[in-house]
Amino acid sequence: MEKLKVSIVGASGYTGGELLRLLLFHPNVEVKQVTSESFTGKFVYKVHPNLRKVTQLKFSSVNELEECDVLFLCLPHNSSQNKIDGFMKLAPKIIDLSADFRLKDSQEYKKWYGHDHSRPDLLGKFVYGIPEIHREEMKNANYISSAGCNATASILGLYPLYKEGLVEEDRTVIEVKVGSSEGGNKVNEGSHHPERSNVVRSYMPTRHRHTAEIIQELSFREKINIHFSATAIDLVRGLLATCHLFLKENLEEKDIWKIYRKYYSDEPFIRIVKESEGIFRYPEPKLLAGTNYCDIGFKKDELSNRLVVISAIDNLMKGAAGQALQAFNIMNGFDEKTGLEFPGLHPI
Amino acid sequence: MKAECPVCGGEIELAEGTVEGELLECPDCGTELEVASLNPPKLNEAPQEEEDWGE
Fold first, then answer.
1. Which of A92, A125, A158 finishes a domain?
2. CB atoms A272 and B28 under 8 Å
3. What is the pLDDT of residues A71-106, one digit of tens each?
4. CB within 10 Å: which end of chain B, N or C, has fewer?
5. What is the pLDDT of residue A278?
6. CATH number of the domain that B16 lies in?
7. What is the tally of structural domains in chain A?
8. Mutation target vs B (from A255, A274, A295, A299; most B CBs, 10 A cutoff)
9. How far is CA B48 from CA A98, B18, B43, in A?
């Protein structure tokens, strides 16, 4: 079988590097070009040392990009939308890993990102990139917009309950604890090791941009409201979303189990983690490093209608590159697990 | 023969030769279960010692 030729625009960042790591081992893929304006002409292993002796690829400039079958965009936010016409001429299929095409409504985009979208006419053309929710649309899609990492963990944790209409839709509070790689590879004062190390830093108590995606994807009837906060903790990879929601009915845990089974029992990358004994009773991000899993657990408060839903992912994998590769597999008719079967490490 | 996990509602296949009082684990929620009866098939949570996590 002839391999698909793919290229990555913006491959020197953490997401681009992670995606390259995955694509280099994909049996149906030939990585044609990877771009970086800062590292043009340099071997990729100079930036991604884990790829030493894995590939002899060098970074190209975006101006040197040639036609390919699928183009992955790993650019900073607000970049893809300004260059999208040129990219669309180079490849019939595009997967954008930035936030530029996640929202369907240009007014919502302006509300959360603080400026007008430069190509609002294209917002409806991108399929939102969570395969568990949009798999059928992906099969015929040419353009996919990968979801935000915090949004991915939150949406996957809450989706079955919102879809079934079981939740008081304006009261859900989500607290996400995130690792440092979520902030990308650009340094700032806050990322300086003595400052970043050991932090429990409440960096976005309100108005996190991923809130808009969660609202968009969980509004099955009327538009819902979500209360989202993010806290930076001393992890490199991984995030844990703790969602506090209030059930309309006083369901038993067995009922909740059945709902999650209904939606996720056939999903290859979703695991329900809820045990009454042992060390890892609920989802634990460190076990997911390098994997494409989203682990979801829950606990019903016996004294109220509160249900606590806990979900964990590797932000660079299920929250970015892994999710994008899963979508790529679906959109090209490959087994969606291809290149994504690493089960993680233990101990780690 | 199939039985339902009393904790998570998961369906559990009871192997041939299963006897009353036998202990098994639910493959979904990991709970240790005791076969309370075979006709009809019924499982109960096996008694556990409470763990002190010191938290």
1. A125
2. yes
3. 999 999 999 999 999 999 999 999 999 999 999 999
4. C
5. 87
6. 2.20.28.160
7. 2
8. A274
9. 48, 21, 15
